[in-house]
Amino acid sequence: LISMGVASEEAKISPSDSSVQQDSLVSMTDVFLISLIVGLFTYWFFFRKKKEEVPELPKMQSVAAPAARDSSFIEKMKKTGRNIVVFYGSQTGTAEEFANRLSKDAHRYGLRGMAADPEEYDLSDLSRLSEIDKSLAVFCMATYGEGDPTDNAQDFYDWLQEADADLSGLRFAVFGLGNKTYEHFNAMGKYVDKRLEELGAQRIFELGLGDDDGNLEEDFITWREQFWPAVCEHFGVEATGEESSIRQYELVVHTDVNMNKVYTGEMGRLKSYENQKPPFDAKNPFLARVTENRKLNEGGERHLMHLELDISNSKIRYESGDHVAVYPANDSSLVNQIGEILGTDLDTVMSLNNLDEESNKKHPFPCPTSYRTALTYYLDITNPPRTNVLYELAQYATDTGEQERLRKMASSAAEGKALYLSWVVEARRNILAILQDMPSLHPPIDHLCELLPRLQARYYSIASSSKVHPYAIHICAVTVEYETKAGRLNKGVATNWLKNKVPNENGSNSLVPMYVRKSQFRLPFKPSTPVIMIGPGTGIAPFIGFIQERAWLKQQGKEVGETVLYYGCRHEREDYLYREELARFQHEGVLTQLNVAFSRDQAEKVYVQHLLKKNKENIWKLLSEGNAHVYVCGDARNMARDVQNTFYEIVAEFGNMSQPQAVDYVKKLMTKGRYSLDVWS
């Protein structure tokens, strides 16, 4: 187009020339134009061809990819002679653990089971399970957050919602893992159970509902001991004998190994901590440097802290309200004590290889590695072990009394359950404490490593806004430390590990493996919408990010609605977190209301719900007239429930509603995203 424009301009320059000169000029222009067009076409032709060749490689790779062949769990079951598949939706590893236990149980009844991650398979194949004789699908489904599926069950959940499959040949059972302190108790387990029936599947045993706020282990055992008799009755099979110890992995000790091939704490790819490559996620965390680690409280026995993680050059993006997940390390003194009791060289390099060669899970944790690395980075050694671990360990106790005690606690008898509850759960005895209190118990360290669950990432509400801090993530946390009923001092793994992080120091002392998990806890789309934030203690974390963002929006010239905070702590002069920052935000007019409850500064305790009642008229006005969004962050067991009940009272009083109508009003706010929770128990 530019060339044509130039030519027409040249033609206009000499209109008074003779006709010969004009013809000559036209012909020269034509030659110039034709040459230019041919040249451009030739260049374009070869350039385009070159570009077209680039995408050919990914196409060829995708055709050759073996994933499609492996995505059928039906073919795998047929190939390996399995007839029971136990799918798990697991966020912290417990549902996966239960699935493994159920799949191992199957052999007692002449059946063969396999545990399966729904993320790895095509679940539409459920309609084909009837092709296998005496087949059964079991689902151990945990509920995450506010009634959400776990990350690995998201695709399965989406498929269930959209599916119109005929599952009339499918036999199934569901065990849900939840927590009664949460609003949507066991929502995922209930949904899967209901939806499979709607699609025509046959339930062979009732839905099990495990409650982590009570005794999840006992709930599972109680369900399991009734589940298997129902399976036997349905298929006409009988138990072949007592529960027996079957090893799932075999030990291989590496005496001559290239240390560059040995895992030293990486979650996925070998050497991923030395050679970091985005994108960063649960299997590929980013090593963030701690640039600030300061104590927030001025007194008291607790240690409340503010940490800042540098995410420069990571390409990690986050929004206010998201969670940061960190992978902690166990205390080296606990690891050393386990090694001493078991008389083991912890620096022995080994692998635990799955005896089932067809299994997708080749190792229980990254291998090869050392026992020290496994016990430090990969295994949970601080939580009370579950009953199946005690049962397997019992065979290694040389004292008959200790052996019987372990077996009794692992049994389904009422006396055994009560003993497990008091001696292990309530006394918070971890594996080290059990080894110390049972001197004759000396299991092989490789079997212990096989039995212990994986050490899980810890989630924290991000205490910053990416609009203000695009290259940093802030954490607000309190160190967990308490004395058990047995008189031992137990410390929280992650918070004590974070407490000891030294800012800007070279080496691992300042590095934190982390990734971001997206959340539904979001500020309103319109900045002019009022917000009511309720977050006592470290529950203030996401609201620091929210207020920072509202301040930034105001600086950009946006109209920002009322920003109201209800915060609570024990003592004004001890643990009033972010006091100076909040005062500054209030002074700048961003924080329009700051209401603080100091629970122990007077004879009668005052909590955030009391301040809400005190300001009930204003609360109702913001809700009914301002379409305010409500956010609650912190303790689920007491605070969140009390706050919700207070909202029921306020709505009933000022909305002239009955109690059931007020409850329905608040529930509708939740459905519309106007009443959001970020709580933990």
Describe the structure.
It is an enzyme of class 1 (oxidoreductase). Residues 84-228 form the Flavodoxin-like domain. Its cofactor is FMN; FAD. Residues 283-524 form the FAD-binding FR-type domain. The protein is an alpha/beta fold and 681 residues long. It folds into 4 domains: 73-235, Rossmann fold (3-Layer(aba) Sandwich), CATH 3.40.50.360; 276-328 and 457-519, Elongation Factor Tu (Ef-tu), domain 3; 329-456, NADPH-cytochrome p450 Reductase, Chain A, domain 3, CATH 1.20.990.10; 531-679, 3-Layer(aba) Sandwich (Rossmann fold), CATH 3.40.50.80. 39% of the residues lie in helices and 18% in strands. It has 23 helices and 23 strands. The strands form 5 sheets. Strands 1, 2, 3, 4, 5, 6 and 7 form a 7-stranded mixed β-sheet that branches. Strands 14-11-18-9-10-15 form a 6-stranded antiparallel β-sheet, covered by helices on one side. Strands 21-20-19-22-23 form a 5-stranded parallel β-sheet, sandwiched between helices. Helix 1 (2-13) packs antiparallel against helix 2 (19-53) and helix 22 packs across helix 23. The longest helix has 35 residues, at 19-53. The protein is globular, with a radius of gyration of 31 Å. The relative contact order is 0.08.
